[in-house]
């Protein structure tokens, strides 16, 4: 925990306070997940599939925000992915 705090402080010191804080949550019942499940399977039976679909959607969102300059020019960004049990 201490390491993350120091990393965040270094980022703020170099780039200033963040302008945006964006949160993205995975829906295990996204169509891209459910159509790939075998009969009788639930999303929790295929964490690999859920993680791959989430990562693809995350990349798409990051491209929109950063490369697409949806909120303007991006000087720096940080992202963290957390998994729940």
TrEMBL record:
**Pfam families assigned to the protein according to its UniProt record, in alphabetical order:** Helitron_like_N (PF14214)
Q: What InterPro entries is this protein classified in?
A: Helitron_helicase-like
Using the record's annotation, list all stretches that form the Helitron helicase-like domain.
1-85
Q: What is this protein called?
A: Helitron helicase-like domain-containing protein
């Amino acid at each position: 925990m201490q390491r993350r705090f120091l990393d965040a402080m270094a980022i703020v010191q170099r780039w200033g306070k963040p302008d945006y804080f964006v949160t993205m949550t995975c829906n295990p019942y996204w169509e891209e997940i459910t159509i790939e499940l075998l009969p009788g399977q639930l999303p929790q039976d295929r964490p690999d599939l859920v993680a791959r679909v989430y990562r693809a959607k995350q990349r798409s969102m990051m491209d929109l925000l950063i490369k697409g300059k949806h909120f303007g020019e991006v000087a720096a960004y940080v992202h963290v992915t957390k998994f729940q049990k």
